[in-house]
Backbone:
């Protein structure tokens, strides 16, 4: 199987090769977007293949501990930099798949961008590479670099339809608040380094061996460091009270790309959080788990109640995303025992979100930002297939049985209940009920209201007809929601093994 | 049991829904007959099961047990005993009746029928599941088709009623899921896995009295909302009134029984100590429901709302019977569940039939209907008498057995509940008098057509069963009794409670319970 030493970074290598090829072929092929589109798709498929290869290799050799990748000759980087474990391999599969289907879903937007489409695709590939880096880094600075690669790409993507004023606004807002969060995160890394003298999670000088044989001499510094890292990542996954950017950005950014942004960042953000806390600071669990529980509880309450009063579907999904961040975080209060639940939830949620945003973009236009609830009125008659697909996805997001959302919810709540956080479980289940209210508001609009007259502001004029690419994404999202709701066992078995070292 | 009968019962309506959904668009006239036909299939299987069921066995029969996840303790575990048997048969009967009564649905008929059949599958699942996660899944999934039925095909205030219905029930379910997860973790600890949702494993899990109390409350809230027990009942009149006819029929006949079934199946067996401790409280809530529901029903100007409130009253009897914790009380509750399903279901059907003709539910809009529609009046009076509990009809067997059973342990409540029967006569007969007797004083009512053949065909089986159950409930009781006794035995074994029986002195040989029942039926 060749030189295994490069396998840990193989997905990133494939993606970066894809980036170069897309730029080059865009120069040569110009407006033939199918050419560079295919190249980008091939790069993402290749990255998925590499992640699967990693997973299989790990399953066969059972020697994950030796599969580090270190940069030779860089003295400042101590120990291993990239780690290949079932955790990072599974994260890769999910992130690259989200990237692939996100790109497919955004294709009708790309088609409208003309020659600039190639830039768009390049940025998506870079963002996805950065997201996976966040999950596969052993080194906290490298993790930060992955975070920034992804974030900066997304800042640009959010403002990509720059002729629209609220797209600009979204991009600027995202950039300013996002940079602040990144700064907070890296400050946390610095403080943790100050307290422990280590930037790496694994390896001889890593955090784990540090906590194994050393007494923490500056517990306060360490505590603040961990806290700031949590805050930085909580911002990225839009957990309350660090969520304020999400609704504006989701509403302002072009419809075609929001799903990818929202879903991809959630997967990677939670993976990074799990990696740092569970693998890096396992002995501090009594300190960080209650903090996570409080953030989770706040996210559920704030996200749910603010979602209930939204009249724009994208804002509704954004606020409900805050609540979902809370549910996913509920799994992490259980430490390593919660990671399988977190994976199941976040992986299936990412696809539901992708599908829901794709439908929202179809109903109100891929370039448009806002997606008023009025545009969904009477959708059950105007476009029944779209309406039924949306119903399935909303029911899945609402956690109704026989959808993946229900299994995810049971998994995370079981983990939290087992860890003794029963109050959080009850809070989560009660906010789920309120959640049903706003998901069903959309259903009510689709099936129980007459279409709003076309002159009214915020309504789509024509009957929404999804493009072929949008159809693919919606179909995949619906299939994921239903299949993993009916037969979750294979995925549950996989996520049980997808643990960090 | 080589043939998975129970899975077939659950899957048949789903397969039927798929068939209906795939019917060609240009043949809309096929939707109704095909739907009726496929809805009859589960009934055939259920009837076969009714006769094949071994009488006298207490345990679960036709058990299916497929493990889905060893470590999480989740499996496709189904089984039927004397209690669920009749609820399954009732469901299997009510669904084709409700489908057949939906002739007047012309808007999006296909979607309507699919929702109906999915609903049927969910209801079967609730009564058959022995894995609590699967049970919960079915318990909750029922909300979605019902939500669509009320919200799309209901009357004026439908979307409010639909959302209210979902939110109330889901609110209760939230506690149920929390309780199930907690219970599964405890059961998992006992058998050495992460969790175990297997009902039989849960029965073996020892629980402290505090844990029992909390879990009883968590399960109880969900079931109390569903029943509904006062003060969780406010969703019911809205949902029943706004739902289309078939929706009201299914709500009243089957959906409410999920709550009482839950109490009987899970609360009594899993938390026996808490059940004994809380029996009086639950009995009081049941009696409040009986009197309150009846009193409010009397003053309703809307006949559909009147019947809706009468459900609150009748379901109060069932709760009283369950928490009397006596053999008669429990048997009476199961009979009453079936009887209420038949009679109230039929009353909603009748109201739907008159509504289709006259488009009004206000009692004041009618008068003297017996002259114009004698057949209709006859059926209405028959079902009203059955609902009141006239001897010889099903309502009497249920309510009388319940009163008898509860008199042993909760005598004061039984006496108060007795007034509920009188109040039932007041609200139903008064409504009958205003709607059917006297002269036809509204010109709109003069030209109303009497029931057609299809409508009579729908009502006759219900009426026949009401009569059969009233005249000779023995075959039904024979099947219920062992399962009910098993629940009581379990309570007696795990607590120091001793269920009183008629004619039993401590030093005399125990009287055959069957003999007691014969006296009970009068």
Residues:
């Amino acid at each position: 199987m060749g030189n295994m030493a490069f396998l840990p970074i193989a997905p990133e290598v494939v993606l970066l090769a894809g980036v170069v090829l897309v730029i080059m072929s865009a120069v040569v092929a110009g407006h033939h977007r199918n050419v560079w589109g295919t190249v980008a798709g091939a790069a993402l498929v290749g990255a998925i293949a590499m992640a699967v290869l990693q997973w299989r290799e790990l399953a066969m050799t059972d020697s994950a501990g030796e599969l580090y990748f270190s940069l030779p000759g860089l003295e400042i980087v101590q120990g291993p930099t990239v780690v290949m474990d079932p955790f990072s391999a599974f994260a890769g599969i999910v992130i690259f798949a989200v990237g692939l289907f996100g790109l497919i879903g955004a294709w009708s937007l790309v088609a409208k961008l003309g020659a600039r489409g190639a830039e768009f695709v390049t940025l998506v590939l870079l963002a996805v590479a950065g997201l996976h880096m966040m999950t596969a880094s052993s080194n906290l600075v490298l993790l930060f670099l992955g975070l920034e690669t992804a974030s900066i790409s997304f800042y640009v993507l959010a403002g990509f339809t720059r002729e629209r004023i609220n797209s600009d606004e979204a991009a600027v807002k995202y950039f300013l608040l996002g940079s602040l969060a990144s700064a907070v995160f890296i400050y946390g890394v610095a403080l943790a380094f100050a307290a422990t003298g280590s930037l790496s999670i694994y390896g001889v000088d890593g955090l784990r061996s540090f906590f194994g044989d050393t007494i923490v001499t500056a517990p306060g510094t360490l505590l603040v460091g961990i806290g700031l890292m949590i805050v930085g990542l909580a911002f990225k996954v839009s957990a309350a009270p660090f969520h304020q950017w999400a609704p504006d950005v989701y509403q302002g950014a072009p419809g075609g790309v929001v799903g990818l942004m929202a879903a991809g960042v959630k997967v990677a953000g939670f993976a990074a959080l799990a990696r740092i806390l569970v693998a890096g600071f396992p002995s501090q669990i009594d300190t960080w788990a209650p903090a996570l529980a409080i953030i989770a509880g706040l996210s559920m309450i704030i996200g749910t109640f603010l979602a209930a009063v939204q009249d724009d579907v994208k804002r509704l999904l954004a606020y409900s995303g805050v609540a979902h961040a809370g549910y996913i975080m509920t799994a992490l209060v259980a430490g390593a025992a919660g990671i399988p639940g977190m994976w199941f939830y976040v992986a299936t949620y990412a696809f539901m979100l992708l599908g829901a945003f794709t439908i929202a973009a179809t109903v109100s236009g891929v370039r448009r930002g806002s997606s008023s609830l009025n545009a969904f009125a009477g959708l059950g008659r105007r476009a029944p297939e779209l309406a039924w697909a949306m119903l399935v996805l909303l029911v899945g997001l609402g956690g109704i049985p026989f959808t993946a959302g229900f299994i995810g919810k049971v998994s995370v709540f079981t983990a939290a209940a087992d860890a003794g956080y029963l109050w959080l479980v009850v809070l989560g289940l009660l906010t789920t009920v309120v959640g049903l209210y706003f998901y069903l508001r959309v259903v009510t609009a689709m099936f129980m209201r007459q279409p709003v007259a076309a002159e009214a502001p915020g309504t789509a004029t024509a009957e929404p007809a999804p493009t072929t690419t949008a159809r693919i994404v919606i179909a995949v999202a619906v299939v994921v929601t239903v299949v993993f709701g009916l037969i979750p066992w294979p995925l549950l078995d996989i996520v049980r093994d997808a643990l960090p070292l | 049991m080589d043939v998975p009968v129970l899975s077939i019962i659950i899957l048949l309506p789903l397969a039927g829904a798929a068939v209906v959904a795939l019917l060609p668009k240009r043949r809309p006239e096929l939707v109704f007959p095909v739907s009726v036909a496929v809805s009859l299939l589960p009934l055939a299987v259920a009837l076969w099961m009714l006769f094949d069921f071994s009488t006298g066995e207490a345990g679960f029969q036709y058990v299916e047990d497929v493990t889905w996840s060893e470590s999480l303790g989740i499996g496709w575990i189904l089984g039927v005993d004397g209690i669920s048997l009749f609820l399954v048969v009732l469901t299997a009967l009510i669904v084709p009746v409700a489908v057949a009564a939906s002739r007047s649905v012309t808007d999006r008929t296909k979607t309507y029928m699919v929702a109906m059949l999915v609903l049927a599958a969910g209801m079967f699942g609730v009564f058959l599941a022995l894995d609590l996660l699967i049970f919960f899944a079915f318990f909750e999934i029922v909300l979605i088709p019902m939500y669509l039925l009320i919200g799309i095909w209901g009357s004026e205030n439908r979307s409010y009623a639909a959302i209210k219905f979902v939110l109330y029930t889901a609110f209760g379910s939230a506690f149920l899921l929390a309780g199930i997860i907690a219970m599964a973790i405890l059961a998992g600890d006992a058998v050495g896995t992460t969790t175990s949702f297997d009902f039989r494993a849960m029965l073996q899990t020892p629980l402290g009295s505090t844990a029992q109390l909390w879990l009883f409350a968590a399960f109880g809230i969900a079931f109390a909302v569903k029943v509904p027990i006062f003060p969780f009942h406010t969703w019911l009149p809205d949902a029943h009134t706004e739902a289309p006819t078939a929706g009201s029929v299914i709500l009243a006949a089957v959906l409410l029984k999920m709550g009482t079934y839950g109490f009987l199946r899970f609360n009594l067996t899993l938390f026996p100590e808490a059940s004994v401790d809380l029996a009086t409280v639950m009995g009081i809530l049941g009696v409040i429901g009986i009197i309150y529901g009846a009193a409010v029903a009397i003053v309703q100007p809307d006949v559909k709302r009147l019947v809706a409130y009468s459900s609150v009253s009748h379901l109060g009897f069932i709760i009283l019977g369950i928490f009397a914790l006596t053999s008669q009380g429990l048997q009476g509750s199961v009979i009453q569940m079936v009887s209420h399903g038949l009679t109230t279901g039929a009353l909603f059907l009748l109201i739907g039939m008159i509504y289709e003709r006259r488009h009004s539910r206000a009692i004041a809009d009618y008068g003297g209907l017996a002259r114009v529609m004698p057949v209709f009046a006859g059926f209405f009076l028959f079902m009203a008498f059955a609902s009141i509990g006239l001897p010889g009809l099903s309502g009497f067997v249920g309510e009388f057995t319940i009163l008898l059973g509860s008199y042993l342990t909760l005598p004061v409540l039984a006496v108060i509940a007795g007034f509920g029967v009188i109040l039932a006569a007041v609200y139903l007969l008064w409504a009958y008098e205003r709607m059917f007797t006297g002269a036809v004083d509204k010109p709109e009512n003069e030209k109303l057509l009497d029931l057609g053949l299809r409508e009579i065909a729908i009502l006759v089986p219900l009426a026949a069963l009401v009569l059969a159950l009233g005249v000779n409930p023995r075959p039904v009781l024979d099947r219920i009794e062992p399962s009910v006794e098993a629940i009581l035995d379990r309570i007696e074994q795990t607590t120091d409670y001793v269920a009183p029986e008629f004619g039993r002195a401590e030093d005399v040989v125990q009287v055959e319970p069957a003999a007691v029942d014969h006296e009970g039926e009068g």
Remarks:
- Residues 279-522 of chain B form one domain.
- Residues 56 and 305 of chain B are 40 Å apart (CA to CA).
- Chain B touches chain A at residues 68-69, 71-72, 133, 136-138, 140-141, 143-144, 147-148, 151-152, 158-159, 162-163, 166-167, 170-171, 173-175, 177-178, 181-182, 184-185, 194-195 (CB under 8 Å).
- Strands of chain B lie at 61-69, 74-80.
